[in-house]
Amino acid sequence: MGIGWNYAGFVLLVVFLLDAGDFCDGGVTSSFVRTKNISADMPLDSDVFQVPPGYNAPQQVHITQGDYEGNAVLVSWTTPDEPGSSTVLYWAENSKTKSHAKGIVLTYKYFNYTSGYIHHCTIKNLTFDTKYYYEVGIGNSTRQFWFVTPPRAGPDVPYTFGLIGDLGQTYHSNRTLTHYELSPIKGQTVLYVGDLSYADDYPFHDNVRWDTWGRFTERSAAYQPWIWTAGNHEIDFAPDLGESKPFKPYTNRYHVPFLASASTSPLWYSIKRASAYIIVMSSYSAYDKYTPQYKWLANELLKVNRTETPWLIVLIHCPIYNSYIHHYMEGETMRVMYEAWFVEYKIDVVFAGHVHAYERSERISNIAYDIVNGNCTPIPNESAPVYITIGDGGNQEGLATGMTEPQPSYSAYREASFGHGILDIKNRTHAYFGWNRNQDAYAVEADSVWLQNRYWTSSEKSSIASS
Ligand SMILES: *[C@@H]1O[C@H](CO)[C@@H](O)[C@H](O)[C@H]1NC(C)=O
Ligand SMILES: *[C@@H]1O[C@H](CO)[C@@H](O)[C@H](O)[C@H]1NC(C)=O
Ligand SMILES: *[C@@H]1O[C@H](CO)[C@@H](O)[C@H](O)[C@H]1NC(C)=O
Ligand SMILES: *[C@@H]1O[C@H](CO)[C@@H](O)[C@H](O)[C@H]1NC(C)=O
Ligand SMILES: *[C@@H]1O[C@H](CO)[C@@H](O)[C@H](O)[C@H]1NC(C)=O
Ligand SMILES: *[C@@H]1O[C@H](CO)[C@@H](O)[C@H](O)[C@H]1NC(C)=O
Ligand SMILES: *[C@@H]1O[C@H](CO)[C@@H](O)[C@H](O)[C@H]1NC(C)=O
Ligand SMILES: *[C@@H]1O[C@H](CO)[C@@H](O)[C@H](O)[C@H]1NC(C)=O
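Structure tokens predicted for Purple acid phosphatase (467 residues):
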């Protein structure tokens, strides 16, 4: 009897251990449950959407990097009533003289919406690591802002990026942005992983919600560059409304320096910034072999000098690794196309949005898999990037809460909450990544990890020659 009981007990124990093993293999699925889970957009008369006072006053002011090297800034803004002036007046903090740069102005129509006068002006040849003031508008309605140029690219230049995605314009969005602004580790540039305004969720893609989003984000984006990635909510393809040119509002409103990296489209491009090399890709443009994006990326990866910019970062909207039910496997074709390059070129981190939640992967690769060998389990590989999904800005579509179970072994941490990330690069070997859940205090990090640079610390042999 005793033996029988023991045997049954042993079997139960083994079953229990195997079961627990499955869960231990995967990382942490957070048990945090959010309160006040309402994702309503802030009403049109909210403080964050206020129109600046004065006739034809510039609004929706935002800046992004204006060239490849980092010493140009692209300033964009809208004047509502008339074109006014596309000139930016700017001066270094301690300079007596002011300079002018002349930009362009454009308008676009979308269904029955006509945009304001959208200005884009690139200020070039700035001094690295310098504070500049700038002024837009004319007459009684000028507005002044400032920015700080990054240090010249170099291997041990510390620099701090914020990570925000799928922001939208709800109360949660406002909270995420506020937490980013008040973070004790100060972000110097935002890496934005796509899905901006969610205007396309409104009837007739009401582009007024693009304007409100521009006014909402101005308080950050006018003072530090936001590096833009296009998401599915930027496509705005609506033939039923007579709108069959994809990305029309986005590409009119958010200009990027794609020509500087020899790209043929604003939807994919790259920049150098301090010690980082940032490659922006488009999930919603052709990327198969022989396409413009493919050819561009093949050449781009060869250009990167890991001594000058040790940190190689990819921004993309649709995640390649995602263990949530929402958008599960949507990134698979992109993974099949590009994962081998990501591992070969030792990309440090791939940031994505799309899934309205947070997830961080282990360093894993699935490049051994093909349809014949059936080896479809991702395996640890220290040359592989960490994949971070940060589509948790807090838009009106709400959280992605459904997860595949058990948590796959490649998933290190996942949580259905809203928040933002900080990537704090210390030197060529070390960077710190922290994720703030926007229901915690500003300084609390619900998840964090030290990242060791793949090029400088991984012992895996690389097929790329060192520079
Ligand atoms: C655009 O058309 C829709 C539907 O007819 C209407 O509700 C809306 O007020 C129109 N907007 C403008 C700016 O005319
Ligand atoms: C860039 O600025 C420097 C001084 O800061 C000046 O000497 C140089 O001529 C400028 N170059 C261009 C192309 O404007
Ligand atoms: C602009 O300022 C001038 C001088 O202060 C004033 O006379 C004029 O009425 C103002 N114009 C507007 C449109 O406010
Ligand atoms: C948005 O956040 C800012 C900063 O915390 C706050 O001043 C403002 O009142 C908030 N607005 C709304 C509509 O929540
Ligand atoms: C890479 O960058 C370093 C540091 O800027 C420089 O010394 C080196 O010449 C560059 N290598 C190549 C191949 O351009
Ligand atoms: C990691 O990937 C690289 C590049 O494909 C490969 O050479 C290496 O053998 C892999 N390492 C492991 C542990 O599988
Ligand atoms: C949050 O609300 C969404 C709908 O807005 C719902 O699908 C989801 O299950 C809710 N999540 C939690 C954790 O309550
Ligand atoms: C790089 O930064 C890390 C983390 O701050 C530190 O431990 C390490 O000593 C630094 N390396 C060098 C060479 O300074």
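The chain has seven helices and 26 strands.
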